[in-house]
Design a protein that fits this description.
Oligomer: single chain
Strand content: 15-25%
Distance between the termini: 95 Å
Radius of gyration: 28 Å
């Protein structure tokens, strides 16, 4: 086998190039998997916030409802809203797979409910990146439509 003096210093350079490309590919896969995981966790957090807001908006002031019926005068009871949101989160958190959900706020103006949630991001490959927390906010509105006479 003939060895050229021009190629004698290049022995093993293909292995180094291959290892470098393999390393870059592994880092790229880890970044893509972590980004997908963060997106899925955030989407689950939005689902929890939606469910909690919908549960909270069903907490009408029963005394007002029984006195005047369903209409523009029916309002949300702030204490009941808070309680229903917390109960909804406690029930949903167990099956949702999102750990460490924190209720940052429940806001109501008597007609609508806004729920603010956060949860720490748990990245499978690069947790040391310090991704922080995912945040989600959802709003639901209490709305009545007048019943038309003769409809049905």
């Amino acid at each position: 086998m003939l060895h050229s003096p021009l190629h004698s210093g290049e022995r093993g350079s293909v292995i180094l190039l291959g290892l470098g490309i393999l390393g870059v590919c592994l880092v790229a896969v880890a970044v893509v998997v972590d980004a997908t995981s963060a997106f899925a966790q955030r989407r689950q957090l939005y689902s929890l916030a939606d469910a909690a807001a919908l549960s909270g908006v069903q907490s009408i002031d029963l005394a007002s409802y029984y006195a005047t019926g369903a209409g523009a005068g029916t309002r949300l009871d702030a204490a009941s809203v808070q309680q229903r949101v917390e109960e909804s989160l406690a029930a949903a958190e167990a099956g949702a797979g999102v750990a460490g959900v924190r209720l940052d706020g429940v806001h109501t103006d008597g007609v609508s409910v806004r729920v603010d949630l956060s949860a720490p991001l748990r990245l499978p490959f690069l947790p040391w990146l310090g991704a922080g927390a995912a945040r989600a906010s959802s709003t639901a509105r209490l709305d009545y439509r007048p019943v038309l006479q003769g409809a049905g």
